[in-house]
Amino acid sequence: MVHDYVLQIGAEKMVLGFREAIDAQRKAGQLRDIDRPVDIRYLGTLIEESETALLFNNVVGYDFPVVAGVMNDRERMALAYGCPFNDIQAKLREGVARPIPHETVNTGAVREICYQSGDDVDLFSLPVPLFAQKDGGPMITPGVTIASDGKGGYNAGVYRNLIREKNLTGIDLVTPNDLRRIAEQNTLEGKPTPISISIGTHPAVTLATSYRPPLGVDEIEIAGGILGAPVQLTPCATVDVPCVADAEIVLEAEILPTGWTKPEGRFGEFTRIMGALHWNPHVRVKAIYTRKNPIYWALHMPWEVAWLCAVIQEASLRQSLHEANIDVKAVNITPGGTCFFHAVIAISGRVGEGKQAIHAAFAADDFKQVIVVDEDVDVYNPLEVEWAVATRVQADSDVVIASGMRTKPLDPSLNLITGRMPTTAKMGIDATMAPDIPRARFERISYAFAEEIDTEAYLNADDATVDASDETDIAALAAEIRSVVDDAPTYHSDLIKQFWSAGAMNVNRAIGQLHETGDLWQDEEGRICLKDSPSAAVPPGSKLTNRID
């Protein structure tokens, strides 16, 4: 039976703030407070090797605590969203379908302290760790960047910022997107692009602003739809765009009209591979605002981004499968595929729908490998999935290859050619049972008498169990068994169960006696029957038959 990844969580509804989200994790034992002094150089390794999120309350030399690992686990994400992990993608689709407009407020927690402004801005005072050994420098990773879209609305996204100088960063705008389009137009006109960077927002805001929505859909409104309440924005003081009002830290800044001419990177990507050096614009930070006692969220690579990708990819995939009229039972965007490139899909399908699901998945997003299985396969168990591929796939008919398809440049196996957008080859494996093969050939082992016993209780019990009775009349028992199988073919285990009080040994002896007298045979399913029964199996090609027509 398919095991859906459902978690028991403490929250009954989504919490609406960043601090409430991490507090829910703390209460569930999924976040640990570290009060001892910690060297910032060790943060990356400490969180990578931790089984929980970590809140470092005493980072040596810095005024702010640092939290990391908030979203690098299914259970932690479930706690933040107040629902099982597998339901988060449904919340995202709900947010896209029913966005809620933001509210503009003139106050907000992030307005509590103007930390630094003008020439006093010092990004080096922020506790931004260096994660990967070959990173180009400290990277601000979870900032929700808001810019004017030039049409009276706002564009929001999440981009990394490489700290270059005390008030200067790079910004990764390599991939074609709306912010790049806005910045390119302003650069052509020789003017900067005002932005705000909100650090420490509810993960739903990070999720929504990382999603690639349909044209004309506002990412902040999607976040409101996910949360079930408007996201509050407040005006910035030095740039003409708003920021998220309850963020922990806000950087007010401008993308400078330098063009894509400044080196930026490298960076340890969500693919678990070091990215290449990029050419990007610079960002001038004009002011830093914080709330009282702010917490810096050091979004940990790769897993905090990978699990975010998993939700976005699953939402896109389910939408595409729904439009293809596929009955989906479970989906796993696998960690081994960096929660981005690989998907395992369990379906309850009609003939041909395994391959239909593969093509729908190819169209959904940047999936590179798709495996479709029947609903009896646990998509979260790699052993189960590999077993389905081993026992239900013929490569010449069940493997689908599609070339020249859209992809992400982060795939290191691509042949990148300057001036050309890369394409990829995708592979689908239809690991569903072939319709023209008898289902009995796929029947799984189920262990005899499993429903009769509680293993742990049985192994720890002090009382002895007696299997057989020495006083059983084997001939009488054999006659009873003969009567049973005369009525209907019966599995050996069911005979033992029916005559349980006699014990397994005596039932086996009685069945053996019936074999000695030549009374017993088996049907095509292996059940015990009488030799002259109409259901008795006949050897292949035999002209003899024991059946009565």
In terms of topology, how is this protein built?
Elements: H1 18-27, E1 31-34, H2 43-48, E2 53-56, E3 66-68, H3 74-81, H4 88-97, E4 103-104, E5 113-117, E6 139-140, E7 144-148, E8 154-158, E9 161-165, E10 168-170, H5 178-188, E11 193-199, H6 203-210, H7 219-227, E12 232-235, E13 242-244, E14 249-255, E15 262-264, E16 278-280, E17 282-290, E18 296-297, H8 303-323, E19 328-333, E20 342-347, H9 353-364, E21 369-374, H10 382-392, H11 395-398, E22 399-406, E23 423-431, H12 455-460, H13 474-487, H14 492-498, H15 504-516, E24 520-522, E25 528-530
Parallel strand pairs: 1-2, 3-18, 4-12, 20-21, 21-23
Antiparallel strand pairs: 2-3, 5-17, 6-9, 7-8, 7-11, 9-10, 10-17, 11-14, 12-13, 14-17, 15-16, 19-20, 22-23, 24-25
How would you describe what is shown here?
The protein has 15 helices and 25 strands. It has helices spanning 18-27, 43-48, 74-81, 88-97, 178-188, 203-210, 219-227, 303-323, 353-364, 382-392, 395-398, 455-460, 474-487, 492-498, 504-516; strands at 31-34, 53-56, 66-68, 103-104, 113-117, 139-140, 144-148, 154-158, 161-165, 168-170, 193-199, 232-235, 242-244, 249-255, 262-264, 278-280, 282-290, 296-297, 328-333, 342-347, 369-374, 399-406, 423-431, 520-522, 528-530.
Provide keyphrases for this structure.
549 residues; alpha+beta; Pnp Oxidase, Chain A; UbiD C-terminal domain-like; Arc Repressor Mutant, subunit A; 3 domains; nine-stranded antiparallel beta sheet; five-stranded mixed beta sheet; 15 helices; 25 strands; 27% helix; elongated; disordered C terminus
